[in-house]
Amino acid sequence: MIAEIGLASLWLAAALAALQLLAGFLAQRDSGAALAELVRPAAVLQALLCGLAFLCLLLVFVRTDLSVALVAENSHSEKPFIFKLAGAWGNHEGSMLLWVTVMSLAGGLIALIERRLPERTMLATLAAQAFVGLGFYAFLLLSSNPFERLSPPAPEGQGLNPLLQDMGLAFHPPTLYLGYVGLSVAFSFAVGALLTRQVTPDFARVMRPWVLGAWIFLTLGITAGSYWAYYELGWGGWWFWDPVENASLMPWLAATALLHSASVLAARDALRAWTIMLGVVAFSMSMIGTFLVRSGILTSVHAFAVDPERGTFILALLAIYIGGAMVLFALRANTVAEGERFAVLSREGALVVNNVMLSAILGIVLLGTLYPLLAEAFGAKVSVGPPYFNPVGAIFFLPMLLVLAVGPLLRWRRDSFARVKWPVILLAAIVVLAALAVWVFAGIAILPLLGMALALCVAVGSFLPLRGRSLRRLPLTVWGMVIAHFGVAVALFGMAADSAFTVEKLVAARVGDTAEVGPWTVTLASVAPVAGPNWTALEARLGVRYQGGRETELDPQARSFWTPPQQTSESALLTRWNGQLYAVLGGEAEGDRWQLRLWWKPFVTYIWYGGLLIALGGLLALVGRVAGDVKRRTALRKGAERRVAMENAA
Amino acid sequence: MAGALKPKHQRLVLLIVALVALIGAALLAAWALRNQASYFYVPSDMRANPPEAGRAVRLGGMVQQGSLQTAPDGVTIHFLVGDGKAQVPVVFSGIVPDLFVEGSGVVAEGSLRPDGTFVADNLLAKHDENYMPRELEDMTKDQARATVAETTQ
Lengths: 650, 153
What we know:
Order of helices and strands of chain B: HEHEEEEEEH
Number of strands of chain A: 10
Radius of gyration of chain A: 27 Å
Strand content of chain A: 5-15%
Structural class of chain B: alpha+beta
Oligomer: heterodimer
Mean pLDDT of chain B: 75
Distance between the termini of chain B: 82 Å
Strand order of the largest sheet of chain B: 2-4-5-7-6
Largest sheet of chain A: 6 strands, antiparallel
Helix content of chain A: 55-70%
Number of helices of chain A: 18
Shape of chain A: globular
Structural class of chain A: alpha+beta
Largest sheet of chain B: 5 strands, mixed, barrel
Distance between the termini of chain A: 64 Å
Number of helices of chain B: 3
Largest interface: A-B, 64 and 54 residues
């Protein structure tokens, strides 16, 4: 019954999306003005119904209703509760429903609260939003029904892929999806503004919180995904340039560029067409990412291979939305292009450089990700990996960091080199001195060396905008920028330190044997079997000492799940402020020995601290913007009330 | 510097710089990708046209039956990777992926030593029993045919 309610409300939500699209579109003409009243209620009701459908999906998963095909395929009655819940979106159908749900909730929210844009633009935006949503409803209802019944019901479920049975991963997809979907909202705004030719600073101010929100979730999603791959796959790496990882990185790059260009539009009414373009591109990257991940078309260590029919469907949606938006852009771009002017050496100029560099990196990642596909079409099997992405990406990434350090010091519109001469000299000196120091004392490879020097330069540069300002009266948005930029420096330092200083040790140890890795001494105390809720494991007990200090315990496991039957290795991590000790238990070797893989990774955690700082910076900026809007609106209302009161008194 | 230019010209400068950077990125990427085209090898390619020693490449194929040996240190393994036409000896020090067994597909990342042995830094981990590196999908069909031919002789 629950599944039927879910399916019915999904159909109704789709119907309301169709109504929202039609009414929003017709309301653009004077003859359809009466329909305008329908658009906002339709968006809100659609959100409620779609939310109900998602609740129903959660419910059938929580109850492990094995007469629902999706539950039988992806869940098991003996699975821990939290993973039953996560099972709802840890699969193709469920994640698509989550996508549509978040998108409709966003639409409903816009319909409820957004009053700043011209009404026609607002209606066009909601129509565009419904148009995008409708494609995904069609996808769900026609080819991936999450509520499909199984007759007769399965005796027991097949379980969830054990690698996904991890807290980190349970919440990873929803985080990324919130990001993807937030960009769909930016896309709708861009299309709406193009339709009514109203690309104004107000438009940028309305769109910006959505981009910021999406960007925060993407940042968190990428950070969490990277950490998950690092500890769960047991290979000690934090980025693989895997297509699935690239699928989340590409929208992030586009969103980062969009965020900066939207700031220019909001503050200075320049970069109009470019901002719209990025709005379209950013969502295109979300769609391409979804396509790559969900179609099973690419090789991936993450391998969520799904059947090609669905890939074709997403590809068709991609063509319709992106193609349509590009055509619209081509038709309308010239009518919105002219904006305020600015000099090359100015805040705008620096932000344009940032945008160009980000776009270049985006292009490089996109080409590298799609190239194997294209090559395969011509019969060649190619895999593109770190030897391509690292150096080619660095060529644009490293200079961008210099602009990141200097750009915030520049004035809007026009600046002179003389005014920023000293800070620039200071930063240049830091890069050179740091590079020299690292080169002399550590003798590491060129990319980590540059990375470290630039990390220091960016760290100092990110705090320079605070110079000479009252810290207490500084707006939250400026704090946001400072912290996010500092986060980039921290993450970069972590990456450079990890690739420069990691020590690895591989041993086959008997119980009682001791191994040295970097400053650590590791003793294998015992290996014993242990059991969990749906797995058994061999657990090694390791006694570890840092530079002969107090002993701590680490317990890496080799786990065996039985539904589905699969082995995973649970690495054990010991985190210190200056790095992480990473231990993996391998198989049994001859002569009662156990394979142990140990890494000492100095400052590796700074990669993810940096990611968190970047997201925190975004959050501060978002809070600052929203609070500013609320304040302005309250002031306007109070002013209006006072005027009314005065008129009444008179 | 640019102060003498009219604002419109200054924006033109930015536009040109942007175009140059983007075209540069595309050319650079295309050039790098051409070099990468030979990044993935199957054993017969590697025999016929070996990559220079020390260059980072991937080798994909089937772990040959009966070829897997563990060295006395307990963590180094030697095995042969074949594609039905040629075989390449591989040496790997580390913990093998859970589903690494004789007869299964493998993608090894590493480089060729001058003596013709492939030194793997990493064996591509498979996530589950259904996962087959896409590069190897065709080969498995060949392999299956070959196995059938062998057993029916």
